[in-house]
Amino acid sequence: MSHFSLDHEADYQAWKTQKLTDYPTRLADLVVEVRDPFDLSRGEVEAILSRCAKTNMALFCLTHPERIHQNPLPAMTARLGISEIDHNLGADGEGLSSLTPGGSKHAPFAHYIPYREAAIGWHTDGYYNPANHPVQALCLYCERPAHEGGENDLLDHDLVYIQLRDHHPEALDALMRPDAMTIPARLENDGAIARPERSGPVFSYTLSGLHMRFTNRVKSIRWRDDDATRQAVEIVRGLFAAKEPIQFRGRLEKGWGLISNNVLHTRAAFSDPPEAEKRVLYRARFFDRLPRTP
Ligand SMILES: [Fe+2]
């Protein structure tokens, strides 16, 4: 996909014009009503995929969530055309993670932040994956929202790329280096290496699209040790703070979900009363991107 190459200016300008024309401005523009998630209609599939092609994300909203008693993500994602599920350690046998306090299937992960109630800053999923095996699609389904909180901010990473390319090309260049960002090894309690150190670029691209690998956390991450990279990270953080380019904010309610090409996102802290049933969100990650058309 040559328009993401810094050498192909005319292709980039043409892509950008198309990308920004009629770009949605309201969360509601992203929402597709779904009648039966186990039997998506052609119109529902087209509505979801066309939004993903435009903004890298779509939200879905079941018209009858009370009729659904099992996680619909496997059926929906198969119908939408993605299949290379990431069987990560916190997931169950189908590759689905239940994001609920204490919900990790892998005991050492139970204290990890997705399985707690704390806020999570801007990131894309799988930022610690090998650079040649990134999480391309991220899908969520809300079975039960929290009593309070748990909202998400969402930001199309293509727009961050455009901001950098147009206003800070040297920063973009720094973030496309293969050693821009390094996640240190994860060690077991006995010191054995559970996951080796991983380095990779923030922005990379293939024929099917742009990928962003990012976390705003400051612990357990090592940025390339030079001024260009440090300045680039500050510029990206400044974009988040300025809410420019456009960010969407909303909360997945019961029967709502996200289908995305692993867009940037946050999660607000949430809480449930001590005796109440806890928030349950299902997550599925894929190594393939959503097709642009059915
Ligand atoms: Fe995430």
From TrEMBL:
Its cofactor is Fe(2+). Residues 105-284 form the TauD/TfdA-like domain. It comes from the Bacteria. Keywords: Antibiotic biosynthesis, Oxidoreductase. The keyword Oxidoreductase applies. It holds the Pfam family TauD. The keyword Acetylation does not apply. This is TauD/TfdA-like domain-containing protein.
